[in-house]
Amino acid sequence: MTKKTKIFAYYLPQFHTIPENDSVWGKGFTEWTNVKKAKKLFKEHYQPRVPLDKNYYTLTDKNKIYWQMDLAKNHGVDGFAIYHYWYNGKKLLEKPLEIIRDNSELDLPIMIIWANHDWNNGWSAEGKIQTLYTVDYSDKNDWKLHFEYLLSFFKLPNYLKENNQPMLGIYEPDKIPNLNELISYWNELAIEQGFDGIRFSYQAISKFKADGQSRDKFKYQIEYQPQYAWKKLDSSSKKSNLIGILKKIPSMKSILKKYVKIRPNSLVKKRRYEEVAQEIVSMREKDDKSIAGFYVGWDNTPRKKSRGTVDVGSTPAVFQKFLINQLENISSNYSNQYLFLFAWNEWAEGGYLEPDEKYGYQYLEAIKKAREITGK
User: Fold this and answer.
1) Alpha carbons 367 and 76: distance in angstroms, whole number
2) Which residues contact 25 (CB under 8 A, 6 or more apart)?
3) At what angle do helices 140-154 and 179-192 cross, to 10 degrees?
């Protein structure tokens, strides 16, 4: 009998205030700040996005996390892949994860992904990007401290494990110069704590050249969509390639506006959701490490405005159609019966399952229906 697919949705904890964000983007900043400021930049552009009943929640409220988990359970989402930020003992956006850890009724399965990228002002910076926090990977005392913190989650009964090995994702493993040594050390510590090691995975994205680095110590490669598909698509016209270059020049938008009569909004890179989704469902596993991905939609203009990228054309019906195809594809062509879905609540990047004022619960219902139709 074929195993049922486990759907894990990426989960962003940046829906509560922290002093570090206040100091860069202004007092009271959360992910909702960008969402509320979003503008419609072209005719078919779906912006702004408004949560159903204007539910601009705060994730320091345990009841809101319970609401999210209850929605997930009732609509076929098996767990959350939650981003974790650690900078040599400096934790950021840790409160939602710790609330889940400290309240047993919040029992939806979870997995941690260490978002080990630099913490910077790249969303708003059109010129020089300022790095606010980075990781010193040479600090081996920090390796132990970091493991001990992760261990408090690994021990949870609802933490995702395989064969007594907790699953841990690393966002950008290529940033870690002593990666193999770190992984070996954490495996040793996990065994000392009664586990049979850790099952490491990495997110295969456009900026991580997976083929250029040894993957021997990783159990899984997660195909992070839609970026993983974008790099496989070669459909850009000369015009869009030129626009991509111009977008990187901060002063170019004002020059174009004044002399060439091209509106800055036309610099937004647009893709067709159906084209990207079709590319995803046509993928096959690279090897038995491969874990498939899929996505609800993409639109990061709330963060990057006219420097952003928009996948146009996602609706609940279209999403359901391709999700059915992807569930069938995983069953037939992947060794690992997981699906990592972008995303549960990436509102400022256009990837969310939570109900909004336009579609209500239809994206969640699409998952439930797709699973009922496929039996997967």
Assistant:
1) 6
2) 33, 121, 124
3) 50
18 closest CA partner among 129, 145, 184, 132: 132
- Cβ atoms of residues 276 and 233 within 8 Å: yes
Q: Any long-range contacts for 11-14 (C-beta under 8 Å, 24+ apart)?
A: 11/80, 11/81, 11/82, 11/83, 11/343, 11/344, 11/345, 12/83, 12/343, 12/344, 12/345, 12/346, 13/59, 13/82, 13/83, 13/93, 13/94, 13/95, 13/96, 13/97, 14/93
Phi, psi of 154, deg, nearest 5: -55, -30
pTM higher than the cut 0.85: yes
Cβ atoms of 169 and 112 within 8 Å: the answer is yes
Question: Around 81, how many Cα atoms within 13 Å sit in the side-chain half-sphere?
Answer: 26
- β-bridge mates for residue 271, sequence order: 311
Residue with tokens 């205030």: 17
Residues paired with 167 in a beta bridge:
199
321-352 pLDDT per residue, tens: 999 999 999 999 999 999 999 999 999 999 99
Residue 8: phi and psi, rounded to 5, are -110, 125
Q: Are 303 and 47 in contact (CB under 8 A)?
A: no
Task: Return the C-alpha torsion angle 360, 363, 364, 370, nearest 10.
Answer: 140
Point out which residues pair with 356 in neighbouring strands: 51, 360
Q: Rounded CA gap, 365 and 344, in Å?
A: 14
3-state helix, strand, coil in the chain (%, to 5): 40, 20, 40
Q: What is the rounded CA–CA span in Å between residue 143 and residue 28? A: 32
Helical axes 140-154 vs 95-102, angle rounded to 10°: 50
pLDDT digits (tens, 9 = 90+) for 211-253: 445 678 899 999 999 999 998 885 444 444 555 555 556 555 5
CA distance 254 to 331: 50
Residue with tokens 């204007």: 54
